[in-house]
Amino acid sequence: MSASELPSSAKIVIVGGGIVGSSVAYHLGAIGQTDVLLIERNKLTSGSTWHAAGLVGQLRSSANITQLLGYSVALYDRLEAETGQATGWKRNGGLRLACNSERWTEVKRQATTARSFGLDMQLLSAKEAQDLWPLMQVDDVVGAAFLPTDGQASPSDIAAALAKGARRKGVTIREGVAIVGVEVENGAVRAVVTSVGRVACEKLVICAGQWSRAVGKLAGVDVPLTSIRHQYIVTEAVAGVTSGLPTLRDPDRLTYWKEEVGGLVMGGYEPNPKPWAADPLPEDFEFQLLQPDWDHFEPIMELALGRVPALREVGVRQMINGPESFTPDGNFILGEASEARNIFVGAGFNAFGIASGGGAGMALAEWVVKGAPPFDLWPVDIRRFGRNHLDPDWVRSRTLEAYSKHYTMAWPAEEYRSGRPLRRSPLYDRLSAAGAVFGEKLGWERANWFAENGEAAEDRYTYERPNWFGAVAREHRAARQTAALFDQTSFAKFRLSGPDAEAVLSQIAANDVRKFDGAIIYTQMLNDGGGIEADLTVVRHAKDSFTIVTGTGFATHDYHWVRSSIPRGVHASLFDVTSQNAVLVIMGPNARDILQSLTRDDISNAAFPFATARDLIIAGAPALALRITYVGELGYELHVPVEFAASLYDAIQAAGAPHGLRLAGYRAIETLRLEKGYRAWGAEIGPDHSPLVAGLGRFVKLKTDLPFRGRAALEAQRAAPLPRLLTGFMAASDVILLGRETIFRNGERVGWLASGGYGHTVCKAIGYGYVRRAAGVDAEFVMSGDYTLEVAGEHVPAEPFLKPLYAGLRLKA
Ligand SMILES: Cc1cc2nc3c(=O)[nH]c(=O)nc-3n(C[C@H](O)[C@H](O)[C@H](O)COP(=O)(O)OP(=O)(O)OC[C@H]3O[C@@H](n4cnc5c(N)ncnc54)[C@H](O)[C@@H]3O)c2cc1C
């Protein structure tokens, strides 16, 4: 390839010709983008794609990611006919086995989830599963799930078909061209430098598989992934293996299977995975494999032989040991990088890149062209990562853990263990000594609950009532009846300042921020479709100065949203001040008495009303105090410089003791907010849902004539019947709701729960989900139905509600 064969400019440059880059190219072509150049350093498919096993499963724990994988299946159905390129695609269905009662619960819940998401997953007995897969022994099988629409493909052929389709649609593909540099100007990509010349571009899409971290680095973009060795064997022909044999996943034996030319492919996820190569990864790794590592594979082989005894009798034709990129949470990485404008990433496919390739390429192509994905893709959004992901060693240890858990039980509320503790509040040691059991978010250690009276300070996971249930009840009651102290230092905090700060915020906040100085404004920020991109608290210090507080996990996302909403030339600056202040939160009917005993400032209701912020001196600490609540009680959020945190904590503990103050953690916050009906972004609300369908219309300034982003979409939505409405459901106290349970109204499926839990004041299971109907939904429709929830295949009665279950009557005036 010479420089003359490379265009000097292209509107969009894609780096990487595996299945993902090819799919992005195909879909860009499909939406009429032809000024597109795909460059591949070696040959198309020569990275991870050519040696994939080719299983295509669809079910994920998010409805929208499942929808993406379903899109892949629909695309693969037609791709061969469309392009004339064989794809090896067949819809032979997928089986998943359960070999103990807890796994069976998990599989039954997955089947419910699948049905919620519109997939017909059937539950089978061991015998019925064996009828579909006669070679396996099923003595240890409790049951199985079967998804008839799953399938398998020939990975290179699918990718080749996508590349062929892309070329036909006018996309230029060049092999033998490597990206070696990226020019970024004024925070946006301007050109790529390749091994044979410079190409000016408006947008760059990084689909370089496990090399994406290195390519991202050229532009200052962090792509947190690790390359891990993954192995499978291919056997000689096996008697009884037919071409219609479904794929098989046997998670309790850590293995998967599929048919291949009359033989079997069998691979697995070792509990002790091995990373591949240190930085940098070799660049000339083209159609290559790693040395088979039989010792490492032996335990997997043993487990597999127990399932398919015939494996003893057949020869192994080949052992594939291939490197593939994995991520710290097992989900792939999609979207626009927060570090630079117009640089997009599609990488880190965790050994399901063939299954995801079609859908991920479609979504990323739309994201690149329109600046937004077709629907909410938060679970895979690159902005879910944070500062803890900058260290490749931290990423590697967490990713190895995620890999090792690929087939282990996915327990409710399960936490990772690796790379901890990393980010600690100044109160960490004190909380730890008080019995805190920590969880982790974006590297932050956060107390989930506190063990007392000889309780073991550890999570014991189960699908039944967990061991922390009683402790959380205790903390919950303290918040409702006396007072509870939470350490919420990990909150993401931003400062927006400058003469245009109010104007900028006014344009992106759905609520009115032109209030008096000292006001707290709870607001959403909307996309053009009226969907909720951020849900946060704004403190107005002055017209030119605001503090923004949002959830720990949304630090990168929300910062990016606000910052990219500041037009060039406007005088407003955004700073991340998360690490400046610790946040101590006192909630409960006695909160005021406790706080008043520590300050000379008057904090009576008249002097310090709800939804206001004040600078107070509390026990020697200068605090920005917010009178606000996420649990439905009288309470205060105290933001203090980190060096004051420990002293303030000690003072609050001492002053609180006679008032029944108790330490409380994040799991108590969850049960409290479920009762109170406060929405959580990423659960009940997100980019697919407007404030109107989420029951948050009262926080939107539609009554004013102020313009704001998303306003037109909300006005249009308001003029028509709502397509869905967020509804609360209450079920008997022994029902365990976790989210994703199907909602039936008068016997008809109308949605699924976005979240689920338990309310310790109302003593009921609580869940929230959207009730959907094409003809429209209103409060009367919601409240007039008879409801059941499908929980692990069983129907349980449920009561709908639209007003908070817990009214917070104890809120002191
Ligand atoms: C053993 C094994 C079994 C698997 N089984 C399955 C399965 O059953 N089902 C499934 O869905 N998935 C499976 N996978 C995963 C699947 O193979 C990957 O997720 C998928 O191929 C990733 O595609 P990609 O396009 O992201 O990366 P790749 O195919 O690796 O493509 C990236 C491309 O970028 C190019 N590149 C890198 N750096 C540069 C540069 N600087 N300039 C230009 N080009 C560059 C590389 O040469 C490469 O061709 C398996 C993977 C392995 C290893």
Overall description:
The protein is an alpha+beta fold and 813 residues long. It has 18 helices and 37 strands. The strands form seven sheets. Strands 1, 2, 8, 9, 10, 11, 17 and 18 form an eight-stranded mixed β-sheet that branches. Helix 1 (19-30) runs parallel beside helix 5 (155-168), helix 1 (19-30) packs across helix 8 (353-370) and helix 2 packs across helix 5. Bound molecules: flavin-adenine dinucleotide (FAD). Flavin-adenine dinucleotide binds at residues 15-21, 39-42, 46-49, 51-55, 155, 178-179, 207-209, 211, 215, 230, 232, 320, 322, 324, 347, 349, 351-355.
> Bound small molecules, which ones?
flavin-adenine dinucleotide
The end-to-end span amounts to 76 Å
> What's the tally of helices?
18
| Oligomeric grouping of the chains | single chain
Task: Provide the fold topology.
Elements: E1 9-15, H1 19-30, E2 36-40, E3 55-56, H2 63-83, E4 94-98, H3 101-116, E5 122-124, H4 126-132, E6 143-147, E7 151-152, H5 155-168, E8 172-175, E9 179-185, E10 188-194, E11 197-206, H6 212-218, E12 226-237, E13 247-250, E14 255-260, E15 263-268, H7 294-307, E16 316-326, E17 333-336, E18 343-347, H8 353-370, H9 392-404, H10 428-433, E19 436-441, E20 444-450, H11 469-481, E21 483-487, E22 492-497, H12 501-508, E23 520-526, E24 532-542, E25 545-550, H13 555-563, E26 573-576, E27 581-587, H14 591-596, E28 613-618, E29 621-627, E30 635-641, H15 645-656, E31 661-663, H16 666-676, H17 711-718, E32 722-731, E33 742-745, E34 748-759, E35 764-777, H18 779-783, E36 787-791, E37 794-801
Parallel strand pairs: 1-2, 1-11, 2-8, 4-13, 11-18, 21-31
Antiparallel strand pairs: 3-7, 4-6, 5-6, 9-10, 10-11, 12-15, 12-16, 13-14, 14-15, 17-18, 19-20, 21-27, 22-25, 22-26, 23-24, 24-25, 27-30, 28-29, 29-30, 32-35, 32-37, 33-34, 33-36, 34-35, 36-37
Helix pairs in contact: 1-5, 1-8, 2-5, 2-8, 11-16
The chain binds flavin-adenine dinucleotide.
